[in-house]
Design goal:
The longest helix has 24 residues. With 386 residues, this protein is α/β, with parallel strands linked by helices. Keywords: Decarboxylase, Lyase, Pyridoxal phosphate.
């Protein structure tokens, strides 16, 4: 590949920019705690995982052998037998949500999707793409779905096959919808378990819940039919990717034989990035369960530090149970723009990811938030007051 000197300079400038800013993200849940240099040599190859890794295909350069191991790992993590599950490495959490909604729609053609106002924005696109009837349900102050409103809406709609889009860690507040309560309330309505579908959007928290002592319900044992996790968030990846896992008996109903690849396919995109599989494989092979637990505990410790500092300055800051998302009042534009904070309405958040391993990394953004939200802070500090 021949590039001009100007083009090479442009690339080098961008490389320096990336190097300088790789740890900027305290407002977004992308982990920078990874090193996949051992996989660089594979960038010389076009690796395409089209079709079903269970069967293989007639395209020689695939990573199906590695994908089998990755999916076996996540089956165990999300408490379902590997023989009873099927999933794949996707392009990200949105594709996982799309796959699951499509699967639910095929299983329940007359079903309506119910999701909370705190749900990721991808769901609004998905219901339009799939032309599925949908209802947006209000949320509680914690960010959880309003359970009373949910059941009242299902009852009002006389919906016999509701499709529940549950959040295992919402985007802004890190809230987890109570899957057990939802199932209990649906049973009170007279709905048997086989008559509704529950998808768990666990983009970030899917790699948190399995490693805490007292997790909220999140797994197949707890009642989900599918779960979607982002690979570039808590795990970390140079390319956005995700993991989607569902019950095999359901997935087999939407698979189709594709003659020219000598395989079956039930994915959204068909052709898939085989390199992403290598990233996920290397991540799970190079970390023990204890390693992941240490990462999560570090995230919580850093989150508690942020909360303590802000609360000491009389700024309301909090996090939901088993969440590394710290919620606080929305600061001025100069603060959230400077530190790339995510904002929505009257709140903002900081997310403490594994690459944030020292309090000093957090102090600059904390100081700016306090200065902005507590105008007399600088004067009080000079005077030695609290």
């Amino acid at each position: 590949m021949k590039l001009s000197n100007d083009d090479l300079c442009k690339l080098n400038e961008f490389w320096l920019y990336c190097k300088e800013n790789q740890h900027f993200n305290v407002g977004y849940p992308e982990s920078a705690d990874f090193d996949y240099s051992v996989l660089e040599k594979f960038l010389k190859f076009s690796i395409n995982n089209c079709g079903d890794w269970r069967i293989g295909n007639n395209y020689k350069l695939n990573t199906f052998e590695f994908e089998r191991e990755v999916m076996a790992f996540f089956s165990k993590l999300f408490r379902i037998s590997n023989k009873e599950s099927w999933g794949y490495i996707s392009n990200g959490g949105t594709e996982g949500n799309l796959f699951s909604c499509y699967l639910a729609r095929e299983l329940f053609p007359t079903g309506t999707i119910y999701y909370s106002e705190e749900t990721h924005y991808s769901i609004a696109k998905i219901v339009k793409m799939l032309n599925i009837p949908a209802r947006k349900i209000s949320s509680l102050s914690s960010g959880e779905i309003n359970y009373v409103h949910l059941i009242e809406q299902i009852q009002s709609d006389k919906q016999s096959n509701p499709i529940i889009f549950a959040n295992i860690g919402t985007t802004m507040r890190g809230a987890t919808d109570d899957i057990e309560r939802i199932q209990h309330d649906l049973s009170v309505l007279g709905l048997d378990r086989e008559n509704y579908y529950i998808h768990a959007d666990a983009a970030l928290s899917g790699m948190i819940m399995p490693f805490v002592d007292d997790p909220q319900p999140y797994s197949f044992e707890d009642g989900v039919d599918s779960i979607s996790v982002s690979g570039h968030k808590m795990i970390g990846s140079p390319i956005p990717c995700g993991i989607i896992l569902a019950k095999r008996c359901m997935v087999d109903q939407i698979s189709a034989d594709i003659d020219y690849i000598s395989s079956r396919d039930q994915t959204v995109t068909g052709s898939r990035n085989g390199h992403n599989v290598l990233f996920m494989w290397a991540a799970i092979k190079s970390h023990s369960m204890a390693d992941w637990r240490r990462k999560i505990n570090q995230c919580f410790e850093m989150a508690d530090y942020v909360i303590e500092r802000l609360q000491q300055a009389s700024i309301k800051a909090w996090r939901n149970k088993n969440s590394n998302t710290i919620v606080f009042p929305r600061p001025s534009d100069w603060v959230w723009r400077k530190h790339c904070l995510a904002t929505s309405g009257d709140v903002a958040h900081i997310i403490t990811m594994p690459h944030i391993d020292s309090k000093e990394q957090l102090d600059p953004v904390i100081e700016d938030i306090i200065t902005d939200l507590r105008p007399n802070y600088g004067i009080l500090n000079v005077c030695g007051q609290n």
